Sequence to fold (468 residues):
Amino acid sequence: MLKNGFFIAALALVCLLAFQSPAGAASAFESQLLRTKFLESELALAQKTRFYLVFDLEKSEVHLKARGQTFRTWPILKFQQLGAPLPVEVLALQKTNLSADTFRVKIKPPDPNKSEEENEAERQREIKERMAKKAAADAKKEADDKKRTQTVPNFDALELPDMPSDFIMYFPKNVQVHITEAPAPKKDFKGKVSAWAKRTKEAYELYKKKSSIPPDQTLVNISLEEMDAKNLYWSIGESISVIFWAPLD
Amino acid sequence: MNFPMRKVALVLAGVAGFSLILGGAGFFAWRWTLRDITEPRVAVPKNTDKKLTEATIAAKTKAVEDKIKSLAPRGLHIVIDTAMNRLWLKEDDKVIREAVVSCGSGAILPNPKGKDWVFDTPHGEYQIQVKKKKPMWVKPDWAFVEEGLPIPPKNSEDRYEAGVMGDYAMGIGNGFYLHGTMYTRMLGRNVTHGCVRIGDEDLKSLYASVPIGTKVYLY
Fold:
């Protein structure tokens, strides 16, 4: 009897700890103050002619906005935060770990000393080489990606599928946002086991990272659908401003 | 021989129970480890204005919300998604017309005399500044460099080319236009030098619908 009681009490304690809210309850006044601060930050951005991003962590969505209106919304599939709390204020993107210039096609004007045919032949050879490189890189991807590259006509273009779906955005106040594409759900047993093992490893790595991160740094990991992540990269440009929103508990 | 059913059942129940306990413990340990990682945490704001009360701050919040709402695009406006190569003509929230367009290729052309040209369609809020019928393309320097030709003087006849911009063009500033195209096969792809190419029918309708001053949102 005593053993059972102890077991139930221990289970209740574990449940309580597992499901408890991480932060202490905030006052209604603080919550209201935070909401006002967020809206004032958004107002400052909405008064400009540029697009901005709102990471709405309450609804698990990223909004691309201008003039206070949402033009695109991408659902957040997974969220993780390590380190200091996120500041609710305007943060201008400082840089990403991947420069868009690395994906851009560099146009080579025709050589005036060569004939038109020679120039065209050279151009076609370069396009072929580029397409071959692209096809080799894409061969590792899924079947639909392969299909897409087969139908790409020969012209110089930087398009949405060429964008990265795994990149880091650096903001002031030591805030880093790592965007990744969410892995497709596995249906077979082997895939499920491997996904579970990957998640366990990831949790362990996060746990290790958690203790090593400086107290003034904030690391955020966000997973989106592959095309949503690419769309986000397309939209951020060189110095987009962002605001994070989540209510106090 | 008597099959020990009872023993087998007991062993199976034991294994199932043990797995359940182990799995449950693993689940709770997982939750415990990640409990403050998967929930967003934001910095608690500091109140610098001691006169603020819950009532005044609620009123302030409402005022800011109303102000943001008042900035949203109203009336006739154009929205262009440069990644999807789509254009929407909208009246408030209602879509009046949707069109497949072509936006900037993002390619880089080295400039022998200065900063390289990057053929991106700009992002942000713009407005229709000028409308032209039967527009003449005044070729900029990059058009000559790209073709490997010498750059002619500013007012040279070589710079003028008719027909390439279609029947209509609407300028949004900085040399960027919404205009027609001879390459309708390429609509839906990122192939332009930064302008937005539109098919004949859509261009005609758009030109007739939008006055100068119409806002254009490009992202």
Q: What stands out?
A: Chain B touches chain A through 59 residues (CB under 8 Å). The mean pLDDT of chain B is 92. The longest strand of chain B covers residues 94-102.
